[in-house]
Amino acid sequence: MNDDEMKISVLSSGSTGNVTYIETPQHKVLVDAGLSGKKIAGLMDSIGRDINDVDSLLITHEHSDHIAGAGVLARKYNLDVYANKGTWDAMASKIGKVPEEQRYIFDPNTTKSLGDLDIESFSVSHDAAEPQFYEFHHNGKSFVILTDTGYVSDRVAGTIENADCYLFEVNHDTEMLRMGGYPWPLKQRILGDHGHLSNEDGANALMDVIGNRTKKIYLGHLSLHNNMKELAHLTVSSMMQNKDIAVGHDFQLLDTDHDRAAHLTIL
Length: 267
Description:
Blueprint: E1 7-12, E2 19-23, E3 28-31, H1 37-46, E4 56-58, H2 64-67, H3 70-77, E5 80-83, H4 85-95, E6 103-105, E7 111-114, E8 117-123, E9 132-138, E10 141-146, H5 154-160, E11 165-169, H6 174-179, H7 184-191, H8 199-209, E12 216-220, H9 229-242, E13 252-255, E14 265-266
Parallel strand pairs: 3-4, 4-5, 5-6, 10-11, 11-12, 12-13
Antiparallel strand pairs: 1-2, 1-14, 2-3, 7-8, 8-9, 9-10
């Protein structure tokens, strides 16, 4: 077995909290920390990993379901924290003091190398100060996280095409959202260009970017109130099959949970 591999686990994904774990031989990284430190430590334990071994935390944007535990984790486990300037400014008062030597600026649309892990940032359209997501590269494999955006621009699609693995947003079923109890302004925000991808939007965007290297797609950031795991999965797989894309043959379509970690996966 090759020991020089990238391993990932979607620890939590959904409207209530988001955390993803990425591991290479040299680095152990979290993307976002949208749950309590205690909960994240427990999810790490459930995949056989120790949160004390994590060295870096990357933040996508300042919404609470992405940063709730960020300050606590940074201080308790001495993590290096990476975010762009707009996000640092927007989240500073929410996460408390992070020591200066642990604070790093990661500009949008740039690449940073952490030893054996190259990380590419890309801006997205979401109602946050300066939202960005990431593509991780190690040993010829790539993993894309994109879970909070109102649409996928041609620029973003070009950046993330033909990755080995995706964690991709399917936030809501449009009809469930329209018929549900949210106030109309909130519904408009979610449906707008700075909101979230619906099941159909996510499926269409995925079909534009996946390629012959793509082996795994995790469906993420599902709304607790406006979606169901089975509905999201069925919508995406049906739309792909209608376009003769071989779901389950060429690649796996995988579900995520807000309270249970996905198995640690080798890319």
